[in-house]
């Protein structure tokens, strides 16, 4: 993705929409699809975190919020069309709620960079504007992480906008269940936030590196191993090869064509240095792409399955 191009809602929707739909419908999402969604969201938010002039984080946040709201509204309409109160309550809201929690937990992992970096930064900026008296009434809002956004939209669409379609006692009970899920999630963030922040920060900030992450429930391990040095080694070797090639061509040209003059030697060396620097700069600044694979679990440890996430260089943005 070109950081100089202005991001659009249509662009972001086309990038993340298909995987969002599969996740909400609990269709099988491959590791490759999950990693691509994670990378795309991270790349949009990275524009803001690295102070690019275009606000990519706001665009992907808006697309996700709109999608969640529209999906929940459609689900509510579908459930409310069922003929009996029992079907609307049990077959509809109860079963749909259990599935929805699974998809919300999955998407919360995919939007981790937005949750841990972009959302807090925006909320801090809003608080600062409020202190300075620069905030307008319509700007007084709190940015939500992905899971809380899903739960809040579900509560409003399923219970607050359809009060007359199920009994009051059932509505109050199930609404309280959603609110409890939000509370538990926010409490968990307070406990594991610093640990998760360190891991995601390593993923986000390193142009290239290796991060081993263990997903255990909604928490992550904090072991990271940065391989940025290896990338510099590759750049150095590549540059040395180009400089040596330019020097050799310059020497041959000097002896064969220019009667021992040194200018071809300097020219060849300069061209080699320029080519080496250009390739290194492109390699180091190029956006990263996440690839994942399952890590075998040792039988004697009884540990839960983990994912090994390798942060690698992505293909050049077009």
From TrEMBL:
Record-linked Pfam families: Cullin, DUF543
Keywords on record: Membrane, Mitochondrion, Mitochondrion inner membrane, Transmembrane, Transmembrane helix, Ubl conjugation pathway
GO molecular function term, any single one: ubiquitin protein ligase binding
Keyword Protein transport applies: no
UniProt subcellular location: Mitochondrion inner membrane
GO terms for biological process, alphabetical: ubiquitin-dependent protein catabolic process
Topology relative to the membrane: Single-pass membrane protein
This protein's record includes keyword Mitochondrion: yes
GO cellular component: MICOS complex
Cullin N-terminal domain segment(s): 27-172
Functional note: Component of the MICOS complex, a large protein complex of the mitochondrial inner membrane that plays crucial roles in the maintenance of crista junctions, inner membrane architecture, and formation of contact sites to the outer membrane.
Description of how the protein assembles with itself and partners: Component of the mitochondrial contact site and cristae organizing system (MICOS) complex.
Sequence similarity: Belongs to the cullin family. Belongs to the MICOS complex subunit Mic10 family.
Protein name, per record: MICOS complex subunit MIC10
